[in-house]
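re: ur msg from earlier - yeah i can do the guanosine-5'-monophosphate complex, just paste it... oh wait u already did. ok heres what im feeding in:
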Amino acid sequence: MSDSIFEKIIKRQIPADIVFENDDIIAFRDISPQAPVHVLFVPKRRFDTLNDVPDNEALLLGNLLLAAQAYAKSIGIAENGYRLVMNCNSHGGQTVFHIHMHLLGGAPLTGGFA
Ligand code: 5GP
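and the outut:
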């Protein structure tokens, strides 16, 4: 299987504005931001969609949420609030098939986000 665009970012083969990284997770600014803060939290190990994540990866999914929560606190948007989104497959609007969670915030969010 060829690398996803996010695997290329993880391997530093293409540039990204990385804001957080640990052994399991990387986070970088979305190239096409839909809010003043729009960061993608991505497990380094690839699962194409949320449907592909097995039961024994609950810790990884939990850590993805907690990484976003900690980042939101660190940049001062947590108190006002933010939105976390994970799109799955075509009806969910997923375009990159390497699971990722969108953190959106920095202003009141109106309407839907796909
Ligand atoms: P999805 O629609 O799959 O939930 O979200 C994919 C997101 O990845 C989109 O918001 C899109 O703007 C972002 N994206 C796609 N390619 C790149 C890229 O090369 N670099 C960065 N930083 N974001 C990307």
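cool cool. Helices lie at 5-10, 58-74, 89-92. ping me if u need the other ligands too
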